[in-house]
């Protein structure tokens, strides 16, 4: 979570060498991570997510009646168009054509944070780090049913590989999942995306998880992370499916909560706190961002008050 109004450019800030080394240190290295250790990995930063949401928010204020909820086959949206996104019915998620990327944003508001009240968590992104920040990138839903993110010159960044499968409508639902369906409503493809973060005074129920996923050009640097509240009472953070950190709590049915003081806690069904991040200086204007692995306050200092142990290599 970041609160800057400056639109940053994507940089190669996270390498697979770094990821592999970090996973080795926790005993979680995978063959895939080791094999790709020589390639660069980009990261769709929280700062960029917030900058995007601010641009979209300003456009919606100018003309909220033009915000589309679906993208139908044979149509596209472009980064330089007046409307370059589709929104969920509840207004909490946007699928956006950005410069060099297609991105799903979770929109978050902190009502008492003043100038820092509108934030966004990136929940899913597909991008090419080498594309210019001025590129008129498109999200194209072809008549043959394939969904593709392309550069302004037509270069492929990512596609769904759904040509010939009958896809007709693309919608982002109220849970943040981007779904392609046939004319009859059958699901052809879905992003599997969901909420990336929670705000202060919110809970993560037993059996639920937060998730962040990024896909870079040609699959180099594909990366995902999750914060999972397991039904056995354990809260765990994973990268590419491998556990990096966990609370080792064992009270079945417990839930996680981010308190109004900005502490992440595991609370038993009886209401007893069985684990706490024990950080301070938070407020109601605090959120946990799974992609960045931090608890951060929405303020001018962009104050990080807690980080998931073992994730210092993740950029903020």
UniProtKB/TrEMBL annotation:
The entry's keywords: Lectin, Signal
Keyword Kinase attached? no
Against Gene3D superfamilies, the record matches this protein to:
Bulb-type lectin domain
Q: Which domain of life is it from?
A: Bacteria
Identify the residues that the record assigns to the Bulb-type lectin domain, covering every copy: 62-193, 201-316
Q: Which residues form the signal peptide?
A: 1-31
Coiled coil segments of this chain = none
Q: What is this protein called?
A: D-mannose binding lectin
Q: Which organism is it from?
A: Rudaeicoccus suwonensis
């Amino acid at each position: 979570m970041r609160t800057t109004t400056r639109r940053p450019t994507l940089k190669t800030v996270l390498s697979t060498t770094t990821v592999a080394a970090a996973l080795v240190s926790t005993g979680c290295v995978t063959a895939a991570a080791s094999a790709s250790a020589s390639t660069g990995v980009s990261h769709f930063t929280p700062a960029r997510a917030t900058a995007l949401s601010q641009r979209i928010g300003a456009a919606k204020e100018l003309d909220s009646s033009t915000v589309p909820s679906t993208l139908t086959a044979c149509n596209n949206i472009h980064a330089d168009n007046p409307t370059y996104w589709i929104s969920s019915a509840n207004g909490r998620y946007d699928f956006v054509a950005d410069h060099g990327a297609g991105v799903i944003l979770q929109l978050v508001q902190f009502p008492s944070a003043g100038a820092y009240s509108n934030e966004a968590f990136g929940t899913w992104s597909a991008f090419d780090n080498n594309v210019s920040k001025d590129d008129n990138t498109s999200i194209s839903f072809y008549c043959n049913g394939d969904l593709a993110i392309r550069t302004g010159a037509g270069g492929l960044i990512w596609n769904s590989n759904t040509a010939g499968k009958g896809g007709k409508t693309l919608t982002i639902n109220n849970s943040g999942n981007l779904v392609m369906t046939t004319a009859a409503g059958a699901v052809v493809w879905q992003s599997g995306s969901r909420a990336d973060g929670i705000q202060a005074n919110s809970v993560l129920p037993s059996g639920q998880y937060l998730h962040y996923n990024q896909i870079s050009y040609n699959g180099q640097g594909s990366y995902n992370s999750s914060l999972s509240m397991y039904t056995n009472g354990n809260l765990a953070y994973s990268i590419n499916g491998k556990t990096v950190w966990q609370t080792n709590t064992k009270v079945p049915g417990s839930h996680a909560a981010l308190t109004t003081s900005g502490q992440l806690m595991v609370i038993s069904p009886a209401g007893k706190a069985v684990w706490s991040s024990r950080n301070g200086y938070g407020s109601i204007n605090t959120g946990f961002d799974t992609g960045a692995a931090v608890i951060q306050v929405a303020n001018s200092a962009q104050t990080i008050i807690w980080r998931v142990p073992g994730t210092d290599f993740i950029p903020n």
